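FAQ
Q: What does a multi-component entry look like?
A: The components come first, one per line:
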Amino acid sequence: MGLQSKHMLGLQHTPAQDILTILDTAGAMKDIIRRDIKKVPTLRGRTVVTLFYENSTRTKTSFDLAGKYLSADTVGLSASSSSVRKGESLIDTARTVEAMGADVLVIRHPAAGAAEIVADNVRCSVINAGDGIHEHPTQALLDMFTIREYKGDFSGLKAAIIGDILHSRVARSNIWGLTKLGAEVSVAGPATLLPPEIEKMGVKVCTRVEEALAGADVVNVLRIQLERQKQALFPSLREYSRLYGINRERLGLAKEDAIVMHPGPLNRGVEIVKEVADSARSVINEQVTNGVAVRMALLYLLTGGEAVETAD
Ligand code: CP
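Then the predicted structure of the entire assembly, as tokens:
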């Protein structure tokens, strides 16, 4: 069985069973990327176009590689070098790319809801690669895949999400996904970086980072998104690091075997110290690898592939 929707726009409305199907299928895809020859013919004849209106290293490159490993034809379009600079609208751009034969459109855009608008105006599958501060579902899926690799089940798992929650589409998608599968999620950061009514998403809200870290199985540290801040929301980066930065002492409050995650890119020395980011408890590089596997799984499933069970 495949997925309920032909699009992946966010985890808020994705059924738990579909999330598990994607994670199971990603397990099989990870076997492929561990091989010397990382190539299978599964998506031969299919076309994947990435359409990015914001910068990206991990998401864009991993979608490109995911498509190539599955033998799809992949094309990348960035807003800065396209006819978007001549004023072409988002919908016209998406329809133009679809008219050239795209089967899957992967879109990143600064406006919340952009991927959904595109999905409503094209016939091909659309994947949201990050829309404003709304959702970044493939990041949350790769985070969940990584958590499951290290921790097994989500039920009763304690996950702490630390930092700039207000501007974080990664946090929102993680909260929807993790709570749906039974994890207990705490969020912590300066009050100015906590969205109003965030508790309505089913999380525990802490203004002291130590409270969220106590007994955590997973510590997910977010990047301070200065580019989205229109005014100063904390006194200085040094002050932020002193009060909210994840260092060895603070990590000591989490469980002894807690893993440390970060979606990247890192502001080393601000939200996380180098010693923790590069420690044995950090799974940041594994997250990046898993991003390719999860995106392969999504491309496969959204183009009609059958779910694959992971052999445990
Ligand atoms: N985590 C993430 O979305 O990184 P990029 O901006 O590099 O894609």
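Q: Is there any commentary attached?
A: Sometimes. For this entry: Residues 22 and 297 are 6 Å apart (CA to CA).
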